[in-house]
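Minutes, project huddle
Topic: does the predicted pose make sense with MRU bound?
PN asked that the exact inputs be recorded in the minutes so nobody has to dig through chat later. Recorded below.
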Amino acid sequence: MTATRFTQPVPTLCRDRDSVLILDQTRLPWRCEQRRLSTLDDAAEAIRAMWVRGAPLIGGTAAYGVALALGGGDASDAALAHAHRCLSATRPTAVNLQWALARMQGRLQPLPPAARAEAAWAEAAAICADDDACCEAIGLHGLPLLQAIAERRGKVRVMTHCNAGWLATLGAGTALAPVYAAHLAGIAVEVWVSETRPRNQGLLTAWELSEAGVPHTLIADNAAGLLLMRGEVDIVITGADRIAANGDSANKVGTYLKALAAHASGVPFYIAAPHSTLDFACADGAAIPIEDRGAAEVCRIRAAGADGEPVELQLAPDSTAAVNPAFDVTPAGLIAGIITERGIAPPNALHSLYPEAGS
Ligand code: MRU
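Predicted holo structure (tokens), as shared on screen:
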């Protein structure tokens, strides 16, 4: 069975002459609007304020941020170092950001300053094309997992968390790539979408699945355990923001609870991620930095007003003590496999797919 290639209905990120257009994810799912980034500061703010989000897309935006910085006329070593510092400080957990910046640095530093701006645009485009290809390959490697379940049961019910679809990448997505591949191949696939408080990235997942015509059901995060226990989920697939050498995987907070419940219910739990999410320099999950996004996101919620305009509503007084770790770490022992662009590996055998990383 051959899947047709998935293409993004609106590009999450694309060059437009000397600037970059992004899809503003803080307006979704109520408004589908692009926003223009013209400077290094615009790119850094886009990542920090989560106009763009999702590990691979953060990396692509950072790469274009370097191009925007050098395109301003100063492509000196100091300008390159300044761009690197600014972008690197935006969000700490997704290693794709550091990966993309290191790749830009490695390509640009050896060049004379006069050649750097053009090379930066080209390298950013190559980073984005690389992610698109990775997403497609992840979809094709994950497809047989879903196909095998559908052959046994007549359909396959996938649970996911956060948004690891096309909105989070430069291609089809990571966790959702096998879902799109299955849907395009005519397999009956249904998705349980958890809302993902506090920022509700699950609404982004529901929006993109509905645009693609994939049957899905939105659930409150706390409903996941019951659905898993009742046998209403065949497989859990999430994305990741950083995977340590031993397979421990950081992803949106709440992923760990789903992995625990899946384990207790005998439901396989998979992570889907490209090479740019692997951090072999990080021995295990304890070394992964976890972003703290502050109390305001817990005390307030984004919703649409009666006119359909996105608005921020107060849920609890801002004086309420609240903490907001944005990610958690799922131990390798709870993960059945990691779906990468090179195939699927048990979490403790990632090295077998990436021998060049050493062991
Ligand atoms: O805070 P976010 O929305 O950037 O977090 C995103 C996630 O946790 C995704 O699951 C992860 O980046 C994988 S995206 C393909």
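Observations noted during the meeting:
- The two ends are 36 Å apart (CA to CA).
- Residues 203 and 226 are 21 Å apart (CA to CA).
No decisions taken; revisit at the next huddle.
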